[in-house]
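Continuing the batch. This is chain 6 of the set; chains 1 through 5 are on the previous pages. Same settings as before, nothing changed between runs. Recording input and output for traceability.
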Amino acid sequence: MNNKDIYIDKSIPIEKQFKYLRDKFSFQAVRTFKFFKKKFGKEAEKMYEELYEMYMEDTLRDYNIDPKNLPFEVVAALAANEEDKSLGFAPEVVFKSDNEVHSKLSYCPYNEAANALKFDEPVCKFVCELNSKYMTENTSYEMKLTKRIANGDEFCLMKISKK
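Output for chain 6:
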């Protein structure tokens, strides 16, 4: 796609346009899970987890990535993902060694959307915990969340280490 294909309304500041997109993305994700919970109750979590696994498998297949042989350099780069930054997460690598990386999130648009929608379910449950579970079960790495904004911490902290 070239720049001629991208419509930008010059009357709206670009920062404001990004905020609209981020809000729409995060609110849609939270609403979707909220509707799943309302319609299917506890079964919604299992369904959402199955959908997440299908999504991850499909995405990894699209990029020709074998999760069992994921190089640590790739994992470390994902901990400070530019795409996540564009979605408003602003991950920051606060520690990195040869076999471990710690990533800090000081802002979570999902948590903000859940609060605005008065959704009392911690968003970590259907975003970060699924990510952590998938990573731990399907790769040669373990991912742990040790701090969470949704639990009242100042920031989220994820630790990813080689098994």
